[in-house]
Write a structure and sequence with these properties.
heterodimer, A: mainly beta, 3-stranded antiparallel sheet, 10 strands, elongated, B: 138 residues, mainly beta, Jelly Rolls, 7-stranded antiparallel sheet
């Protein structure tokens, strides 16, 4: 049943992925798992390029199974420059709206082919709203 | 006395509203009761359309005395499930955040009178600054 009164929660969580490197070239990495009832906040996904990416045309896209670049698009990142990057509304549809996951899902990183060097991490901030009933009313 | 040194604050809180449905058409339900001395950060208010709205021309605005200060109906596709935030423009607080020195209710304006179905929740993130003195210096 849909919740009938407001609820207050203090359940903000932050996840960091493992290092994503040239070993992941030309693959899609399930970077972090978000639980059912997770609300990934607006601008809640950050790509941290810790070591500049090299080889081929370095690109990263971050999203989920619905939209591969939903949170961060390759055009939002300068892969050859160390730093933090978030999506832009123009390129990454979820970046400024956030996204609610009613079921467990993964935040995925699509890594371009031909990488020979580089390291990146993905940071995901979300609210655990699993104790709230945010279903459709009946 | 106004605070004389920087402080580090605890974690934020999130309020998830009750389900807003067709039963709320043409009304202005409260979606969050904010305490005095709280700060809602930029992009701190999200409209989550859990069940698409139908009937008439569905609309929802979220704000305070500025009824679309946080989310304007033009920022939301009420007929498509998903998360939506304000994008500046009419929803000016969405990109600046807002400090509330006094307790304030955020309200939704639910239209139109022909709304026949749909379920929407409003997520509000805030920081409780009630133990800080952010008054004007003397």
């Amino acid at each position: 049943m849909a919740q009938s009164s407001p609820k207050i929660r203090e359940s903000c969580r932050t996840l960091w992925s493992r290092a994503i490197t040239h070993a992941d070239t030309d693959s899609t990495v399930e970077a972090v798992v978000v639980p059912a009832g997770a609300f990934v906040i607006p601008f809640g996904v950050t790509v941290y390029v810790a070591e500049l990416l090299a080889g081929g045309t370095p690109k990263l896209n971050v999203g989920d199974g619905t939209t591969a670049d939903g949170f961060v698009d390759e055009d939002d990142i300068t892969a050859t420059t160390v730093g933090c990057y978030t999506g832009t509304a123009t390129n990454a549809a979820y970046s400024d709206t956030g996204r609610f996951y009613a079921t467990t899902d993964t935040i995925d990183v699509a890594v371009s082919a031909g990488l020979t060097d580089g390291t990146a991490y993905i940071c995901v901030r979300y609210w655990d709203l699993s104790s709230c009933d945010l279903t459709a009313s009946t | 006395m106004a605070q004389s040194a920087p402080v580090t604050l605890g974690g934020p809180k999130i309020i998830t509203s009750r389900a807003l449905t067709q039963a709320d058409k043409s009304t202005t339900p409260t979606v969050a009761e904010l305490p005095a001395k709280c700060w809602v950060p930029p992009f701190g208010v999200t409209v989550y359309v859990a069940e698409s709205c139908s009937g008439g021309t569905p609309s929802i605005d979220v704000g305070d005395s500025d009824i679309d200060g946080w989310v304007d109906t033009t920022d939301v596709d009420e007929t498509t499930t998903g998360c939506y935030t304000g994008d500046g423009g009419d929803a000016g607080f969405s990109v600046t955040g807002k400090y509330y020195s006094a307790a304030t209710n955020l309200i939704a304006t639910v239209g139109d009178g022909s709304l026949a179905n749909g379920t929407v929740y409003v997520f509000t993130t805030y920081y409780d600054l009630s133990n800080r003195d952010l008054t004007a210096s003397t």
